[in-house]
Structures are given as C-alpha cells and as structure tokens.
Amino acid sequence: MIGIAGQPILTAAEMRAAEDAVIATGVSVETLMDRAGTAIAGAVRRLAGANEVLILCGPGNNGGDGYVAARVLAEMGVSVRIAALSEPKTDAAKSARAGWSGPVEKLAEAKPAAILVDALFGTGLTRPLDAAPHPSSSLADAGAQLNPKGSPNGLSWAPASAGERSVVGCFHSLANAAQLSIAVDLPSGLATDSGEALSTPPVFDLTLALGAVKPAHLLQPAARYCGQIRLLDIGVPTVSQAEVLKAPSLPTPGPDSHKYTRGMVAIIGGGMSGASDLAALAAMRAGAGYVTLLGDSEGPPHALVRMPFSDHALANDRIGALVIGPGLGRDDTANARLEAALTSGHPLIIDGDALRLIDPDRIKALKVPVILTPHAGEFDALFGKSNDDKVTRARHAATRANAVVVFKGADTVIAVPDGRVRIAQGSSDWLSTAGTGDVLAGAIGAMLAARLDPLDAACAGVWLHGDAARRLGAAFIADDLAEALRSARPAP
Fold first, then answer.
1. I want to staple 78 with a disulfide (CB 3.0 to 4.6 A). Which of 73, 186, 333, 435 is the partner?
2. What is the pLDDT of residues 379-388, one digit of tens each?
C-alpha cells in the first residue's frame, strides 16, 4: 500500500486508456485482474489478522477483482466468504468467478463478518446502486438487517423493514456491522470523476485505489466516504497533469540571508482591518522576511511594518508579493486601491472582496504572476455558475484569467492555465471559521515573495495551511491558524 501524496490522479476514461495501453502490449484483462485481486488480498491480509472477511462482489470487473482477492485470501489461510449482487457479466469477471471454489451467498441473505470488503462497483459507475441491474427476487425477499450492538462480537442478525430491502440497505447494514470496512477502488455509489454521491455509501475506514488515484478520492462529497486512501500498484503506468498535493520543498535562510532575500510581502488593508492583520501575521509566520501592511491598522506584532496606504509605499521595488482583498471592502476606496495594486507591477495574490470587484479579462491583461484564491461563492461571482465538476471549473477559470486559481474548500483544487492541477487531501472541518481564508492568502504571499514558481507558491501555501489546521485539532480560530504556520513549515 502506497501513500497518495504526489501521485497522479486519473479520470475513469484516463484509467481505461492506461489499462488499454498495457493490454495492447499483450497483457490480458485477466492478468490485470489477477494483479489487482492479489494486491487487494495482500492488503486485506495485513489488516484482517485472524478475523473473517466478507467480500461483496458486483457483476463487473470490480467484482472480478473481489473474486480473485477471495481466492488468494483463502490460499493464505484466511477465512473468507463472498456475497454477490448478481452473476458476473464480463468475461474477465466470469473467469475470476470460476477460480473461486467456495460458495457464493446472495447479497440480501449475507450475514456479516468482522472485515467487510466492498467490490460491488468501483470506477465508472454512472447511476445509483438501486438502479443497478440485479435479480429483484433476491432483494425483495430479503428479511434482514444487521444489529452491530446485538452480540458480544458486534455482529448479529435481525428482521429488516421493507424500506431496507434494497442494495443500499443491505450494503449499509453489512458495512455498519463490520469492525473494519475496506472499499476496492471506490466505495460503491460514487461518481469517479465528479465526486458526486450517486447513492450514499457507508463511510469506509480504508479505500484501496487500484493503479491510480481518482478524482472522487479527493473531491467532495465523495471523499468523505473513502476514509484513509492507499494506492495499490497493479503494473499500469500512469501519467497525468493532475496530481495529489504533496508536502512542499521550501527554501530556508542561509548565512548570507537577510529580510529582503527571504521575501517582502505587502498587504493592502481596507475597511475590515482584522482580515488584513490576519493575512499579514500569516505571511510572517509562513516565513516572509519583511511584511508591511498598507492601511489603517495598529497593534502587535511589533515586527509588522504598518504604514498608511500610498502610491509611494506601493512603489517599493523590493515587494515580492502583493496581497489584496482580505477586508478590502467594496466601496470607492476599495476600487481605487485595487486599481493601484493592478498597475503596481508586483506579483499579486487576489482574495476576498477584490475578487468581487474585478473580472477575468482584467486579470488576463496583467503582465505579472497572479494567484486567485476564491471560495465557492467568490468563484461563482467571478467566473459564473456551472454544473461541471470542480477540477474542470478550476481549469477553465485558470485559462480564462491566465492565472493560478486556488479554488478553496474542503477539496481545494489548484489549477494553472496549461492544464496542470493539484488537489489537496481532505482538510480539517474546523477551517470553517472566519478569517482562515485571509490566513491562506498571507501564507501564499510569503511563498510567492520567496520566489517560488506561482504554482509551487500556491501549493506550498495550501499545504502549510492544511497542515497547520491538522496540528491545531478542534475549535481553533484564524489567529491560532496563522500562528501555527510556523510549526507546520517543514524543518530544513
């Protein structure tokens, strides 16, 4: 099992193409399935211990992987059972089923096990589970649900209500009764590319991504059902412009460093001084050597240089990154300061209110590096609403504005105009508090001022922001988050 940081992210079509390229070299589908099933079995064996394993198999190749995994687990001496939704439909899955010598239970009649493996439907699902083809009689006659508290080992059997006699009902019951639940490739019921929940699956403890990470492993709401995600190598080379965000490699001061070589960040303040104060503090704690706040503000930290906003202050050619938007407001003064920032010639981070005062064409006309940091509402206001998935929307926005776009949220997507994308792994739910976006803008400003490539600067800021939040645990505020950036920054 491999950690997913830095790994390529493939859509369903891209994964099929990667597999087809391997098949074109003479490797059979059955061989790929055997590789996948063997890898699944190895991972499950390490986690299952002496516990019984129940594998749920669907009619497609995901189910075929499950049959292979069951066979290999049995050969390892593991107690394993299979419950199937229906008979296999693909040739490879039929071959895998033929290799399993044990009984196959009906899904609706299956009793629970301590370890549940979901191999019903993985990549490529396009409709809800209860719309999937299955023998209706096996579910219509089902009279059972699981009661995880009804016996000493947490596994028991009791009559089900009519509303629970469905694929989803049986699926949830079996998963909820297990001590450990593992999904093969994706929890069944999720749309691979968009991250949509076509059916609401159980929340899994672990998802084993086959061959490559998929968008649904990272995009919400799908990601919340995946639990921990680990990658299994099945011998399929993968390349993608999209990757999982990884820990940054950051410059550190040396003997010849001084405040300006570490990077100077300027923050333009506005009507809500607290927001710009947070951005400034974050830039300092993220590693900037010199931070100046241009606006009406006072108080600690004393290392922050505060001065009134003026064209003269903005003309300092040592400014390596200029942050505008946190607390800016949307009045005439805000518009004037935004225009001054846009014509300053400094690399820009545009956040908050500034995103409501500008349009993509104006951004595209700029001749300096620009990083935009919108949340969903700001993104819609700037680029318009769309039913496309978040990755597609971020890519289109980056191209339209010719800028790096950090589309914030629980599934932050970072895109650049040439199509490259980085997606952050799940962030702390406690980031849903005022001011955390201002902290992110300041952190990215520090990275850009340190002369990182704009994509690298955006990625580093997002990573530091997320790691700081994880370190803080529960109920933190934005002030805490800004301070925690210092601890999040990797040691040299």
1. 73
2. 999 999 999 9
- pLDDT given for residue 130 in this prediction: 64
> Which CATH number is 144's domain given?
3.40.50.10260
Give the total residue count for the chain: 492
How does the average pLDDT of the chain come out, rounded?
Answer: 91
DSSP tag of 347: -
List 324's β-bridge partners, or say none.
Answer: 268, 350
CB 370, CB 400: distance < 8 Å: no
Average pLDDT over residues 430-451: 98
Q: Using alpha carbons, select from 167, 230, 174, 229 the residue that is nearest to residue 199.
A: 167
Mean pLDDT of all residues in 272-287 = 96
Share of the chain above pLDDT 90, in %: 87
Give yes or no for a contact between 446 and 461, defined as CB atoms under 8 angstroms apart. Answer: yes
DSSP state of 166: S
Which residue range forms the structural domain that includes residue 216?
A: 12-240
Q: What pLDDT, in 10s, does the model give residues 232-245?
A: 999 999 999 999 99
Q: What is the dihedral of CA 61, 62, 68, 72, to 10 degrees?
A: 160
DSSP label at residue 203: P
Do 351 and 479 belong together in one domain? yes
Evaluate whether 259 touches 288 at the Cβ level (below 8 Å): no
Q: Tell me phi and psi for residue 320, to 5 degrees.
A: -95, -15
Instruction: Report the C-alpha gap between 158 and 129 in whole angstroms.
Output: 23
* Domain shared by 33 and 161, yes or no: yes
Q: How does DSSP classify residue 491?
A: P
